[in-house]
Each structure stands twice: as structure tokens, then as C-alpha cells.
Design brief:
By secondary structure, this protein is mostly helical. Helices cover about 75% and strands about 0% of the residues. The two termini are about 30 Å apart.
Amino acid sequence: MKKRNRLSETFEMSIIVEPNCDIVTDNMVSEWGGVPFAQLSVMLSYLHFLSRVHQTHHWITKSDPFYGDHLLFQRLYDDVQAEIDMVAEKVIGLGSSSNVDLPMITNQTQRLVSNYGMTSTIPQGSDLARRSYQVEMSFLKTVTRLVDDLKEMGLLTRGLDNMIAGIEDKHESHIYLLKQRCMNSF
């Protein structure tokens, strides 16, 4: 039987996602200083970052097809907002309120934002969609790494696995929508 690759294991992912993604993820996890379920805290920081990217794209989109892009980015950040609450409640339930430390999440989110690399030029609609696509792909690769860590540590409960699988499924839908928007760009 042929093994199926997860999206984060595909060749396409390796081209789009930064090569040091695993190192960044490991550093972010270690910054939590042994807090249980630190991987979920990193996921929460990354979701905050995704929300900011998609919401900013929602605000600054222009030109043709403005309205379609405006609604697309709104859909993406609305989806992420619901996930932020779900992950935060899960990590507090499994870990503690230390897992949602505001200064730490803000610091990690800011680091991701600074690595995002907005240029000073005015981006076109397809540029925004391509950037959203790249951060979505990077998020899925990060989630795969975090899940592998949780499995290795014996911390991946069935409920946690189910929640994360649902999040991955939603972001694979985001990738589909963004890929369709950027079809001529890839």
C-alpha cells in the first residue's frame, strides 16, 4: 500500500516554506520554559500571526478583484479567530493559564510578524494572496512539527488530535482558496 504524504510533507511545501521553519518552531517551544503543552502555546502565537496577516490583507486589498479579495481575507481571518479561542481554551484545560501568557504570545507573534517581510511597495491583490498562501503553508508545517512533538512526549490525547486535525483541515481549505486566487502566479 502506497503511503500518502500529508500536505506539509509535499515537495510544494518544501519550496514555499522557509528552510529554517523547524528551528524557529523549536526555539519558540523552548521559550515557554517547560510549561506543559508549550506546543499549543506556540500554535496560539502562530494563529494570532495568521489572523493579523489575513486581516491586514482584508484592509489593504484594492483594484480588481477588490470585493472578492476583501471577502476572501475576511473569511480567512474570521476562521482563525474562532480557532484562537478554541486552542486557548484547550491549552488552559490541559495545561494552565501560564500557557496563554500575554507578553510571551505577543512577543512570539511580533517575531513572526517581523519575519513576514512586508515590502515598501504597494502590493497587488495577487501578492497579498500569495503572501497569505505562504503563511498558511508555513503554519501547516509548523503544526505538523508540533503534533510530532506532542506524540513523542505522549501528550497527544484523542480530543487534542481531533481538534488539531480540524484546524489542519480548515487551513487546507484556506490553501485551496488562496491557490485558486493565485492560479497564474504559481
